[in-house]
């Protein structure tokens, strides 16, 4: 409590100061820090914008992702929030239902709208109104280590989980030090790692207002993952590995596959340039279903902003093709701008092409109240299953009942 | 205004300021805990004890409460048991004592979060220092995934908690020991008391008030200590290493149930207040008796 209390006070203090120095023509923007390039990119963009629009000042607050939700909560409850902020699109419903963010429709011209790839704009549309713009977009695919596959005599990445299982046995036999499947079991997106399997078996997180965790697809997927653990196809102790840890195992060549986002390619370029890897779609289930997770972060305009016109002007500037290309280059995200997608940076990049090809099938976090809580209890259930505590069906059914409770509450 | 009132009058402004700084947030948290509140901390209608009821119906909360008691007892008692001999050794005059003292104090200067991060690396199953150390000594043959389950993670966290609490506690004890006059030991030695008897009948009673201080301060500090558990496991897997403060953080800032999170906060406040009052009264009575 001490630490939290202190940082809350500190943040409140900082925002009060920022507030006092604000004047007409100053647009305050809260930026989530994706990498060490994020701050410099936005600083440069703000400078360029200010040069073109004298009289408007852009004030940036760059916040680490982990603290973003906490900072926004504190700022909003104190009434000292910035004019715009980056938020996870999965949080947007909470912001919209509390009337905190303003619809952008009166600003959006057909021309402006046409800049976007529709898949990425649609998650921010609620009740026919557009509440945010996709500032960052990403999807998930299977990274595989070509050298390990070659040693096991495998030439092609597996197309289905059945093929994957056969390949895993070969890899385990040929290279006992390498775990065939890098499975994440800790912290953020532990639930999502489980959904990859569940989606490919035809499951849904929420269907007709009910949790899909007690569906046959969920049970099958849980059994599949658990069998991988039991057969030693995963790294040992999966519940102590978070997303970064599993990615690091892949970079070190200790796991043969990992399912993750495009930014791993750019990390590999600097951290493990000699790694011979490929990117393939996530394996399909028995009926050919395939799942990838689409993620967007939105930039939103707060309803209590007094400089909405200037703020949107800055948005307009940020979402020009040039600026978007530069940003995605820095961060390794997927293009959200249709013209940007044809830039050689993306068009000629084999890795990103795979990700882009998966987008039509991409699923997003469902737009439901209480989503974070459902994600949390799902992660807990998945961890219990991975640890072998309690039987699979019982755990999933109990969690589904809990999730249904949350879904029916609001 | 009489002469007698003047000191109180002079203290008044800082007293009011301190009261405001301490009591105002407490009042706010109390308010939030008794209201239906949205995830941005805006109060909706008054809901009485609904937030508290929801907590006591939640098995994860009860488990975290129980675990907090184990955590606090484990870390505080462990620290006291280890710190007394360390302080005794450091109080003795030996060659290189000042270096030894510096080494013991150094961890205090490092931020708790950084310590926890280093330990997270050390406990890593694949490349961690602890596993390679144990393997080098021939104690284990396969890597142990320390943080993969609560049954190994939680004891390790308590151990880390003890390690990081030693400098502070040892410092208090060293202060205490330096106030014990050497003549007492000389006199006891003349009377034929051995080392152990000297410790039991001279050192320990005279150290008593310092042990009391260390106990109260450590209980309050450890009970609410966040970084070690958060950095190593975030209370996971499946809430199996959560203590109240990590559980509170998840409730408030992950899930957005600020009402329930404030209720947890009030409960920890209440528990620590009761503990402190009981303890201070006991300690004071003891002093009077003595």
Automatic annotation (TrEMBL), chain A:
Pfam family for this entry, one: SBP_bac_1
Superkingdom field: Bacteria
SUPFAM superfamilies: Periplasmic binding protein-like II (SSF53850)
Keywords carried by this UniProt record: Periplasm, Signal, Sugar transport, Transport
Signal sequence annotation: 1-24
Gene3D superfamilies assigned to the protein according to its UniProt record, in alphabetical order: Periplasmic binding protein-like II
CDD domains (alphabetical): PBP2_TMBP_like (cd13585)
The keyword Transport is assigned to this record: yes
InterPro entries in UniProt: SBP (IPR006059), SBP_1_CS (IPR006061)
Family: Belongs to the bacterial solute-binding protein 1 family.
Name of this protein: Multiple sugar transport system substrate-binding protein
Originating organism: Labrys monachus
Automatic annotation (TrEMBL), chain B:
PROSITE patterns, A to Z: ABC_TM1
UniProt keyword terms in alphabetical order: Cell membrane, Membrane, Sugar transport, Transmembrane, Transmembrane helix, Transport
Keyword Transport belongs to the record: yes
Topological type in the membrane: Multi-pass membrane protein
UniProt xrefs under Pfam families: BPD_transp_1 (PF00528)
Boundaries of every ABC transmembrane type-1 domain copy: 65-279
InterPro entries xrefs: MetI-like, MetI-like_sf, UgpAE/MalFG_permease
Compartments where found: Cell membrane
Membrane-crossing segments per the record: 7-27, 69-90, 102-122, 156-177, 210-230, 261-280
Principal location: membrane
Family: Belongs to the binding-protein-dependent transport system permease family.
Name of the protein described by the UniProt record: Multiple sugar transport system permease protein
């Amino acid at each position: 409590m001490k630490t939290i209390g202190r940082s809350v006070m500190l943040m409140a203090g900082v925002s009060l100061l920022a507030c006092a120095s604000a004047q007409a023509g100053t647009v305050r923007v809260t930026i989530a820090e994706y990498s060490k390039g994020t701050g410099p990119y936005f600083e440069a963009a703000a400078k360029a914008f200010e040069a073109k629009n004298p009289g408007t000042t852009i004030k940036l607050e760059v916040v680490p992702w982990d603290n973003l939700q906490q900072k926004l909560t504190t700022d909003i409850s104190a009434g000292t929030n910035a004019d715009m902020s980056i938020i996870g699109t999965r949080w947007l419903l909470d912001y919209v239902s509390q009337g905190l963010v303003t619809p952008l429709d009166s600003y959006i011209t057909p021309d402006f709208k046409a800049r976007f790839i529709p898949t990425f704009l649609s998650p921010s549309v609620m009740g026919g109104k557009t509440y945010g713009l996709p500032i960052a977009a990403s999807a998930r695919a299977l990274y595989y280590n070509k050298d390990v596959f070659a040693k096991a005599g495998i030439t092609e990445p597996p197309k289905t989980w059945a093929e994957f299982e056969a390949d895993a046995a070969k890899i385990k036999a040929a290279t006992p030090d390498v775990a065939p499947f890098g499975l994440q079991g800790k912290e953020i997106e532990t639930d999502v790692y489980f959904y990859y399997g569940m989606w490919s078996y035809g499951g849904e997180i929420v269907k007709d207002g009910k949790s899909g965790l007690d569906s046959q697809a969920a049970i099958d997927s849980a059994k599949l993952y658990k069998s991988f653990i039991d057969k030693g196809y995963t790294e040992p102790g999966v519940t102590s590995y978070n997303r970064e840890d599993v990615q690091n195992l892949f970079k070190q060549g200790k796991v043969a596959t990992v399912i993750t986002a495009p930014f791993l390619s750019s990390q590999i370029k600097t951290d493990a340039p000699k790694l011979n890897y490929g990117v393939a779609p996530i394996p399909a289930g028995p009926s050919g279903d395939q799942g990838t997770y689409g993620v967007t972060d939105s930039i939103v305009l707060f309803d209590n902003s007094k400089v909405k016109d200037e703020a949107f002007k800055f948005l307009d500037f940020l979402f020009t093709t040039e600026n978007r290309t530069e940003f995605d280059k820095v961060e390794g995200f997927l293009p959200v701008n249709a013209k940007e997608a044809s830039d050689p940076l993306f068009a000629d990049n084999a890795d990103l092409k795979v990700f882009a090809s998966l987008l039509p099938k991409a699923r997003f976090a469902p737009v439901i109240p209480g989503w974070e809580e459902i994600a949390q209890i799902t992660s807990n259930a998945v961890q219990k299953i991975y640890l072998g505590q309690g039987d699979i069906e019982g755990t999933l059914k109990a969690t589904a009942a809990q999730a249904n409770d949350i879904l029916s509450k609001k | 205004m009489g002469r007698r009132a003047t000191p109180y009058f002079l203290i008044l402004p800082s007293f009011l300021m301190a009261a405001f700084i301490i009591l105002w947030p407490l009042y706010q948290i109390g308010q939030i805990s008794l209201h239906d509140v949205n995830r941005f901390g805006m109060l909706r209608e008054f809901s009485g004890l609904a937030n508290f009821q929801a907590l006591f119906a939640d098995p994860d909360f009860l488990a975290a409460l129980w675990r907090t008691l184990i955590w606090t007892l484990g870390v505080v008692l462990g620290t006291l048991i280890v710190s007394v001999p360390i302080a005794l050794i450091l109080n003795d005059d030996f060659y290189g004592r000042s270096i030894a003292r510096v080494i013991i104090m150094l961890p205090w200067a490092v931020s708790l979060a950084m310590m926890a991060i280093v330990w997270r690396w050390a406990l890593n199953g694949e490349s961690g220092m602890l596993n390679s150390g144990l393997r080098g000594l021939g104690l284990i043959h396969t890597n142990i995934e320390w943080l993969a389950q609560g049954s190994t993670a939680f004891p390790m966290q308590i151990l880390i908690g003890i390690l990081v609490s030693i400098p502070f506690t040892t410092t208090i004890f060293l202060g205490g020991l330096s106030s014990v006059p050497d003549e007492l030991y000389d006199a006891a030695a003349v009377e034929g008391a051995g080392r152990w008897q000297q410790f039991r009948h001279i050192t320990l009673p005279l150290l008593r008030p310092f042990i009391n201080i260390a106990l109260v301060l450590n209980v309050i500090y450890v009970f609410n200590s966040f970084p070690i558990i958060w950095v190593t496991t975030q209370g996971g897997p499946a809430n199996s290493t959560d203590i109240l403060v990590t559980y509170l953080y998840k409730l408030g800032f992950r899930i957005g149930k600020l009402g329930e999170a404030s209720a947890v906060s009030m409960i920890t406040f209440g528990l620590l207040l009761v503990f402190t009052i009981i303890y201070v009264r006991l300690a004071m009575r003891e002093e009077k008796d003595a």
